[in-house]
Design brief:
Elements lengths: L3 E5 L5 H13 L6 E3 L13 E9 L3 E2 L3 H10 L6 E7 L10 H10 L5 E2 L3 E2 L17 E2 L2 E3 L5 H18 L1
Parallel strand pairs: 1-2, 1-3, 3-5, 5-6, 5-9
Antiparallel strand pairs: 3-4, 7-8
Helix pairs in contact: 1-4
């Protein structure tokens, strides 16, 4: 498997907990899991596969710590790298559920990186999300709602990380 770096932004700890669980399922040690609040974007250069995670706030915004890190990532040449996305959200935010994932995708799609591991949204009920194109069967990555559907989280995490293992 490729060398994996996991990068997350977390205001309440939920996305950090999820990043660490993903790391555990993929065999990625804590020394390769980074909070974007105190990590330089250039750190991504050490990895072949970047797993990026965010929560969604307000009107579908990224977690605040992402903005500077993401601006730096956009400046890098990410050709030859793979990116897998995950997001934590609340489906009761029916028009913005996990939209932070969509913002990550939209801002990084032109960097030359290849996106892997799109994932279904089965079990969630929402009207719109920037993380899932209207006509698509899958979101850009793994979407989780541990608030309203904690019973789905472990199965979805295992399914998504298995997909990464197959694709990476």
């Amino acid at each position: 498997m490729k060398k994996i770096g996991i990068f997350y932004g977390s205001a309440t700890g939920t996305t950090e907990k999820t990043a660490r669980r993903i790391g555990s399922l993929l065999g990625v040690g804590d020394d390769h899991i980074f909070n974007v609040a105190n990590t330089a974007p250039s750190k991504s250069g050490d990895y072949e596969l970047l797993i990026l995670g965010t929560s969604t706030w307000g009107n579908g915004n990224l977690e605040d710590d992402w903005y500077d890190f993401l601006a730096g990532l956009e400046e890098l040449d990410l050709r030859g790298k793979e990116i897998a996305l995950f997001g934590c959200g609340d489906e009761t935010m029916r028009d913005t559920f996990c939209s932070g994932v969509g913002e990550l995708y939209n801002r990084l799609v032109n960097t030359g990186a290849q996106f892997i591991a799109p994932y279904d949204t089965i079990g969630y009920n929402f009207d719109h999300s920037a993380a899932k194109p209207e006509d698509a069967l899958e979101a850009y990555g793994l979407l989780l709602d541990d608030v309203n559907h904690p019973e789905l989280t472990e199965t979805r995490l295992r399914g998504w990380t298995n997909l990464i293992k197959q694709q990476a």
